[in-house]
Amino acid sequence: MKKWDFYTTNELKPQGWIKRQLEIQAESLSGNLDKIWSHIYGNAWTVYKNSDQVRDLQSNPAWLDERVLYWLDGFIPLAYLLENEEMIARAQKYIEDILDAQKPDGWMNICEENDIPLYETWILELLSKVLVVYYECSGDERIPEILYKFMKKFYELLESKTIKLFKWGQYRWFEAFIALDFLKKRYDDEWIISLAEILKEQGMDYNTLTHMWKRPINFWGLDTHIVNIVMMLKYEAVYCNVTGAEYTNRAEYLLRILSEFNGTPVGLITGDECLSGKSPIQGTELCAVVEQMYSYEQLFAYTGDYKWAERLELIGFNGLPATFSDDMWAHQYDQLSNQISCEKTLLGRPKFRTNDQNAHIFGFAPNFACCTSNLSQGWPKFVLSSFMHNENTVMSVIPMPSSLKTEDYFVTLNTEYPFENKFVYTAEAKKDFNLRIRIPGFAKNLTINDERVNAYNDVTFEIKAGEKKVITVSYETVPDFVDRPYDLKAVRCGSLVFSVPIEYEQKIDECMCGSLQLKYPYCDYEYIPKSDWNYAYSSFDLELKKNAVSSIPFSSKEPPVTVKAKVQKIAWGYEEGYNTFCAKVPESRFPLTEEQEIELYPYGCAKLRMTELPLI
After folding, report:
1. What is the mean pLDDT of the chain?
2. Which residues partner with 369 through β-bridges?
């Protein structure tokens, strides 16, 4: 079933602005987390390997083991994409600790024999996925056999009913299918299919839960947990790929329900931390941002359906950068569409349904620390989705500046997309291959080598052996209003959503995070507004303005592109009981001032912003 395969970090390399974005990540929290946080350098895989210490799952619960695995899931491809030898060595150190924990029978968890049934199976699913990521980056030939023995033991324990899926593992059963696909290509043993069937049988069937997604409730539960749900979107694709079952495009049906009742203008689903409805002042957890992107990356690879690539870049170019500070030392747990302030609310009065009063500040680990470790995968895996391949066809999926080199061909893409719509491909071949370029649905007036072309979805070029071909592609995108709930509008141009930016000052808080003393730059920051935000759009006129891309691609001070819009102030008002959250909808839409022109920033640049406004 799988239509497209990913390239490895040895073949595909970032260039231009996206390489700089990865460098910012490597220089900041993601690249230094293991130096400062005991949940990484003092994790159970390190502490209990080859140790006489006995682990107590009560005082040192298994769910803590996810944090080093989450971090490695993004840190490994980041290190290899940047060819940073020091980072690669650090990643390998943690992998060696994990591999040292494998028992002769293949099992790989850090607990006593009697505690095996109590160990969280979600950790095992995540571990299997991380080992695949490591192999694809490093080419370490030990991994296939290690993973084979581990997953076969997993099957034997499940088949004998010694263990069963429960809690997080039950709701994330499909995460193990990345490893099952890897193993099936190499071994194709019958137990691999049997394990796939057991995981599905014991896993949660999300099709039975859709009635719970239509009305948000202030109650925490695995059934409406946003990260579980966006992970789930790929379940049918990965299951059908391994088992050969018929694919029915269930993800489209489930996403339609989620978007209708919980959608945002940047393609995310609200969840702070459970599904939170359509309000522009409810948030989306950062773990959900990177996991929804990963689901879309897999959905495109398995189905080849271009809609998943277009949805992927909407999130990647908006929701992902929005949730980080410019320097990526701080992140939000929850990002909001209309976010006029990122200040702590009064204790006991959080605005979020199931999160605390710190969830939307920028910091080291606001609310929960899962996002602190899981944030690392967003940008590197997004880069690895720029080109994919199938036999002798190379697909330009997400057009970002990058270079691709294999034994048979060499392709480079020079572009500043999504900040401009010009693409220069240079292709050289030792053997014949086809270069296919995806054309998004919003592209207008497509030209190839300065000639107008009528094309739908994609264009393909045949590159002959010994040939070098330069292909220049360009098209236009036009800023326009898109409808939002409550008779509000958002501005979108191509894959970029635009917001009214709000100037702010930072308040630094070098507080305690558990036993860790936070120190600048890894500390908490409150963003306090300094400019007006109570606007309504007053004209349909929108004008795109191109600027230079700075050393910080999604800079909150120097945005690479803006949109000029005409607005008037209105009496918007605050959410009842708060003075740091705007009301869900304006109190009045009557204009209070004369019309003025302002510049809208890309959503990912505007850390404080108003994105959903009335058009009066």
Report:
1. 95
2. none
Banded model confidence at residue 62, pLDDT cuts 50, 70, 90: confident
Q: Are 435 and 471 in contact (CB under 8 A)?
A: yes
Q: And the tokens for 382?
A: 């997004």
- Which residue from 360, 357, 362, 361 is spatially nearest to 329, judged by alpha carbons? 362
Which two three-digit tokens encode residue 573?
């008002």
Per-residue pLDDT tens for 463-521?
A: 999 999 999 999 999 999 999 999 999 999 999 999 999 999 999 999 999 889 999 99
Which residues 6+ apart lie within 8 Å of 27 measured at CB? 327, 328
Q: Give the residue from 185, 207, 196 showing the smallest Cα distance to 238.
A: 196
Q: How far apart are CA 331 and CA 33, in angstroms?
A: 13
Bond into 175 cis (ω within 30):
no
| CA distance linking residue 40 with residue 62, whole number of Å | 14
**What is the C-alpha separation between 169 and 146, in angstroms, rounded?**
21
Q: Which amino acid is at 309?
A: A
pLDDT interval class at 348 (50, 70, 90): low
3-state secondary structure of 145: helix
**H helix count then E strand count, the chain:** 19, 25
Cross-strand pairs, 341: none
- How many residues are present in the chain? 616
> How far, CA to CA in Å, does 464 sit from each of 344, 429, 431, 461?
60, 6, 7, 10
Q: Is the dihedral of CA 490, 494, 497, 498 positive or negative?
A: negative
Query: Which residues, 6+ apart, have CB-to-CB distance to 209 below 8 Å?
Result: 223, 224
Query: Residue 51's pLDDT is what?
Result: 61
Cα distance between residue 84 and residue 257, in whole Å? 43
Compute CA distances 230 → 8, 166, 274, 291, 297, whole Å.
Answer: 25, 19, 11, 6, 12
Q: Which two tokens stand for residue 64?
A: 């803590």
* Distance between CA atoms of residues 378 and 297, nearest Å: 11
Please give the Cα distance from 46 to 60 (Å, whole number): 13
* Gap between the Cα atoms of 360 and 615, Å rounded: 27
Asked whether 332 and 366 are in contact (CB, 8 A), the reply is yes
Mean pLDDT of 156-165: 97
Asked whether the beta carbons of 30 and 75 are under 8 A apart, the reply is: yes
